[in-house]
Amino acid sequence: MSHILSQKPAALAASGRNAVFLSRNWHLMDDDDDIIVIEESICLPPSPVRRSAPLREIEILDEPGPSTSGSILDKHVKLPSTSDSYSNFNKLLELEQLIARAKANSVNKRSPKLGLGGSDNDDCAIMVQENIPADDVLAVQEKTVPLAEEPEVPVKKKRRKEPSEAKLQKERERKLKAIEREKNASINSRCEHYMYCHVPRLVFDTFTDTELNTRMEFLQRNLQEQLICDEQRNDMQIVWYRKCIDVEETDSGITKREYEALQHVFAVVISADSFKELVKSKTLEDFVTSQKLSYSLPNPTLVIIIFGKQSRNLFDLSISLFEYYRTQLNYVDNAKEFAIYLAQISRALAKLEKPSSKQDRLIVDVEKGIKDGAPEELIEDWWDKMLAVIARMHDAHRRAIMAKYPNPILASKRFSEMGYANAVKELSELRSESGRRLGPVMAHRLFMILTDLTGRETVA
């Protein structure tokens, strides 16, 4: 027959797992396979809280006290039946939870660290720390083992893109503009920095303090690099070179070409006593001729620098030397004047390049008049071009004059007969389309141009 359980709750200890199973309906089977159902009202006491918790075997590491291994409840121990027993049961559950937490913390602190080096074994280390079985850890390690590295395929270097024609043209224009700017600076603002004065060592050794004063003078003008002492030459000639810049176009592009150009002016330094000897012996002309022939450029200008006091009796001689031989005489009393004179020549030669570059330009650039036509048309065209070159003549006044006096020849005769006062008064009252008067100043200028008999009256 089936065994009837007691009316109090029973604890079934599982031999393998030491776990207690509680259920709202207890199902027990005996040898006769008869099932006895025990109602909830019989098994559990009346309580609002229907709660049961498993009782497990708890082991606390490094804690004193008896072990809780084995069955929790003895077979001969009677279960409590009062309300105090249930309060003790709840306290036992709380104690069990605290002990479980302490055990978990102790396991985490004392768990050995496996030597899973590298980022690939991080997941396995985490599994070990979480008390995952070793088989699962090994499975993860097998999955995370990297495959054999594939041989590196050489990456082809990108071919450098050749610059296009537009970029080359832009770069060529940029270089050309830079060279043109430097070329303009060598003529305008920085012209003195492109003029070099070459003085032989013999000049500095012959006349005392000339080197010191000359270098100080050029240093004050910020031209110390433009004064060069020639150690190789043994003559007394001082020469000047200009640094020139030109543009050269080659197959590779635009390049800058720098070269030195010898100037047409040079100087010879002698003492006052030596100059007197040349004058007395009447060999001055031969000396000038020999010096000019020894110069590289044809027909140069020679400057004779004389150290000493100036002689008043050589005025006619200096005029004849300049007229026939293009030679100038200059006296200097001391080394300071000598240095200043060399700096002045350098400055004059540097600034001479600017006006010489404008010699090929037209003085007046106007449109040409008509060649074929009636006489009245030719006269009117000539009269219009003549009024256009008069200084401070406005276009409105020019049109008013041509409308009032279409023939300048007849106007000249009329103004000569009227006289200066009446003609100037009439011209000054002439008004343009906007009502602006010509004025007495422009009337005076126009009267003098039209009534001039010698042809020397200034038009422009």
Automatic annotation (TrEMBL):
<feature type="compositionally biased region" description="Basic and acidic residues">
    <location>
        <begin position="162"/>
        <end position="171"/>
    </location>
</feature>
<feature type="region of interest" description="Disordered">
    <location>
        <begin position="151"/>
        <end position="171"/>
    </location>
</feature>
<protein>
    <recommendedName>
        <fullName>Crossover junction endonuclease EME1</fullName>
    </recommendedName>
</protein>
<dbReference type="InterPro" id="IPR042530">
    <property type="entry name" value="EME1/EME2_C"/>
</dbReference>
